[in-house]
Amino acid sequence: ALWHIYHHLDTSKIRNYLIDQRAQKLGISTVESRKQYDDPIHLSKTFLDPKNCSELFLNCQVQGWEIRQEPGQAIMIPAYSPHQVCNLANCIKIAMDFLSPQSIERCIQVKEELREQRNHRGNVFLTL
Fold this sequence. Notes:
The protein is mainly α and 128 residues long. The protein has helices at residues 11-26, 30-36, 40-43, 50-60, 104-115; strands spanning 2-5, 65-68, 83-86. Helix content is 39%, strand content 9%.
């Protein structure tokens, strides 16, 4: 699999970039894009291609880490770090979420952001 993982401090820059891209694509203002649609990071419906990654770096000074995961390897993603994965072969995903004292504030932030999702129809209630 090919992973792109970004620093948690770049989350708002990535979010703003995705909102701007969605607004341009739909021909609406950025303000309308924010009002009408849920958080693009939490929706997990956008994949940043190489062009998007280049634009993020040039326009927002955001650069992530690209990690190629080989069979038998595990990837640990820090709390609140935006990430995406492209499966390059058949695979099975096994995920385990855990809290550490060092990341509790970021986990609470994610919980609050998920509660704010307006258009999401699934369960967004999280218990810490």
